[in-house]
Design a protein that fits this description.
about 10% helix, globular
Length: about 160
């Protein structure tokens, strides 16, 4: 029976990707942990006039104004009221950080690079730009998002 600790040489041949796993509706997504600054409970948002329709508002997080995007809107998932599980994932994006509203955050996963494949070409007819890969987890697939590609350059400039 293999142990959970890999041999040091195994790391070189099978590098790991650490991701934060989260839910939007019935769907599960993930994001590279290196893109995540922190995860906070939902807080009051201040609306911004003429902001992108995907931007819900801004928050004041330790004297930094951070725009917040509702990922349900980004992926055309039906709206849901917030509850005790709703979180804001603050991500390190260019040119400035932003918050992402998600239904819940479940865990940090370690994936081998072999588990992750590029998004299928069938996704070309949908806006698959933010999907950097698909992780195979048994019969389940996990969409891995790139925080830098969640909004268009034009939307970033209007935040």
């Amino acid at each position: 029976m293999p142990t959970k600790t890999a041999h040091p040489d195994a790391k070189a041949s099978h590098p790991l990707l650490q991701v934060i796993r989260f839910k939007l509706g019935d769907e599960e997504f993930a994001m590279d942990i290196l893109q995540v600054a922190e995860i906070i409970r939902m807080m009051e948002l201040t609306k911004v006039p003429k902001a992108s329709t995907r931007v819900e508002g801004v928050i004041n997080l330790r004297d930094r104004v951070i725009p917040v995007v509702d990922l349900r809107k980004r992926f055309d998932i039906a709206p849901k009221g917030e509850d005790g599980q709703t979180r804001i994932i603050v991500v390190k994006t260019r040119p400035k950080p932003m918050g992402l509203i998600v239904d819940s955050v479940s865990e940090v996963l370690r994936l081998s690079k072999e588990q992750v494949e590029p998004p299928p070409s069938l996704l070309s007819n949908v806006d698959s730009r933010p999907i950097s890969g698909v992780a195979k987890m048994g019969k389940h697939l996990l969409m891995i998002l790139d925080a830098n590609l969640l909004l268009s350059d034009q939307e970033h400039s209007h935040m």
